[in-house]
């Protein structure tokens, strides 16, 4: 679990950085492709393709294409219709998608009721923290975010279930994850990007370097390594811990107002969901 907590802190600033400095200024297709290409460059020197059979290589590339390639394309466009707060709000359903996909796709006979309850509590806690009056264009943005949530949830579950060996072996094959993501985002950029909206200043390039190398490169490797070490309910509930973390980052670094009562109540519900998910069943 400590890996997932660490990555949550790493990702906490990403929503604000995208919303404040990139959305509407740098074309979403271009920004996503740059992030994926930078992350790929980070792992290419470590790539040892012979450590995996071809079928698993293709599967890992496909997971990367879905989990972050398609997901980020949908997410960046959602920022054109939603505020940062609304984007955070609409991500609250991811825990339910993680639990549902693991149940349906992998045909588990019985997911423990407490896992479903934990996922539901995670959604409730996040809603308590983030529910606000919505903007007029929320519906289209909502649908984009739900598509992104489904892609991210599916990628996490598929990676968790794909046999890839120990952590060292996963590091040596993780370039495939970003090869898939880079191919998807590269094709989307060539087809749809507004080339005139490229990053133009040091701040934008600095943010993209951070998002590409740290948040995407190191972050997704660590998150997926952590996903293999926890149960489905723990993985599901941790998806919503980014919401209180992101709010705290907004308060500390950007000075945005925080409803401390709602944050405390919602965080307590989230903490209870993580505790419930982490409890061992009674023999």
Would you write up a description of this structure?
It contains 14 helices and no strands. 75% of the residues lie in helices and 0% in strands. Helix 7 runs antiparallel to helix 14. The model has no long low-confidence stretch (mean pLDDT 84).
Write the layout of secondary structure elements.
Elements: H1 2-11, H2 14-22, H3 28-43, H4 54-78, H5 84-90, H6 94-105, H7 113-130, H8 138-161, H9 167-173, H10 175-192, H11 202-227, H12 232-238, H13 242-254, H14 260-278
Helix pairs in contact: 1-11, 2-11, 3-4, 3-10, 3-11, 4-8, 4-10, 5-7, 6-7, 6-8, 6-12, 7-12, 7-14, 12-14
Key features?
283 residues, mainly alpha
Q: Say what oligomer this is.
A: single chain
Secondary structure: number of strands: 0
Helix content: over 70%
Encode the helix/strand succession as letters.
Answer: HHHHHHHHHHHHHH
- Our estimate of the beta-strand percent is under 5%
Estimated radius of gyration: 18 Å
**In this structure, how is the largest beta sheet organized?**
none
- What's the overall geometry? globular
* Number of helical regions: 14
Structural class: mainly alpha
Low-confidence stretches: none
Distance between the termini: 23 Å
Mean pLDDT: 84
């Amino acid at each position: 679990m400590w890996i997932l907590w660490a990555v949550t802190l790493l990702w906490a600033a990403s929503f604000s950085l995208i919303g404040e400095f990139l959305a509407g200024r740098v074309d979403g297709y271009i920004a996503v492709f740059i992030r994926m290409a930078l992350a790929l460059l980070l792992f290419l020197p470590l790539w040892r393709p012979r450590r995996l059979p071809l079928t698993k290589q293709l599967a890992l590339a496909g997971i990367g294409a879905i989990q972050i390639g398609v997901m980020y394309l949908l997410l960046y466009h959602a920022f054109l219709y939603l505020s940062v707060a609304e984007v955070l709000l609409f991500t609250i359903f991811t825990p339910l998608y993680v639990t549902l996909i693991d149940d349906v796709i992998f045909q588990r006979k019985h997911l423990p009721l407490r896992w479903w309850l934990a996922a539901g509590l995670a959604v409730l806690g996040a809603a308590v923290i983030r529910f606000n009056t919505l903007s007029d264009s929320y519906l289209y943005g909502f649908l984009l975010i739900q598509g992104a949530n489904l892609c991210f949830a599916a990628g996490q579950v598929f990676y968790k279930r794909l046999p890839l060996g120990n952590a060292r072996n996963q590091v040596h094959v993780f370039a495939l994850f970003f090869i898939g993501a880079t191919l998807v985002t590269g094709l989307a950029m060539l087809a749809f990007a507004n080339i005139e909206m490229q990053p133009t200043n040091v701040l934008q390039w600095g943010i993209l370097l951070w998002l590409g190398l740290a948040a995407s490169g190191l972050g997704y490797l660590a998150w997926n390594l952590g996903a293999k070490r926890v149960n489905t309910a723990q993985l599901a509930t941790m998806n919503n811990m980014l919401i209180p973390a992101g709010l705290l980052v907004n308060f500390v670094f950007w000075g945005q107002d925080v409803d401390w009562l709602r944050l405390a109540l919602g965080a307590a519900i989230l903490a209870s969901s993580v505790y419930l998910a982490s409890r061992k069943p009674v023999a």
